[in-house]
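User: Can you predict the 3D structure for this chain?
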Amino acid sequence: MKLNSLFNIAVFPFAVAALSVIGFSNQAKAVIFSGNISGKWGEPVPESINTDPIYNGVGTNEFTWGDPTPFKNASSNKLVFEGNSFSTDTDSLFKIGDLTYRNGTVLLGTSVEYVPLKLGLSFNKPTELDKVLNYEFDYEFSLKNTINKFVDPEEDADFLYVTNNEVKPSFTYGGDEYTLSLTGFSQDNGTTYVSEFRVLEQETTTASIYAQINKVPKRKKVPESGFAVGLSIVGIYLISRKKAKKTQ
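Assistant: Here is the predicted structure, written as structure tokens:
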């Protein structure tokens, strides 16, 4: 079964920047981050349509939601996250783990709309970062549970995607701030990515989640305008002229 998206496949281009200082350039040394990733699901948000939400697995890596009991041989929806080890530099995509999604059949009103995934990062490089035992970053997944019409399997598919947060989770190293962003799902070892993870009714599919560590640019000081600099030069000149007259 293929992983499909309602949107276009997102391919992430990257650019390499050179640092120039007064007529000569010097390539900055890349920082390598490595360690291990784990994950656990947080407390979900039902939203108004789900008047009787049923779920299990908060605080674990396996989360189920919805009541399947009215349906014969049916199962609830399920998400399982399996983290892995990683090694990456900044601005490069890397795999953080695998997400398995089971699309079950559940009673209307017993589902949830959002569930957070708490990623735990244990760094072993740079060694300064391992002083904190576990960095936790929260990401919210939006769950779209389709009402089945049993006509077109594609139309009955459920899907999820990571909601875009204005404030991205971050950490600090060497006086610089770095963000960790989830970039997409892939089923071909990172060759292509999709922005949402879709699964057909009564199917179970696994896809890898990819992320990226980005250095947050530091704010630059705004230089004085040419007019202000000109006034300063005129002021220095007038002071110098005044002192020169006194000494005559």
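Residues 19-222 form one domain. The radius of gyration is 26 Å.
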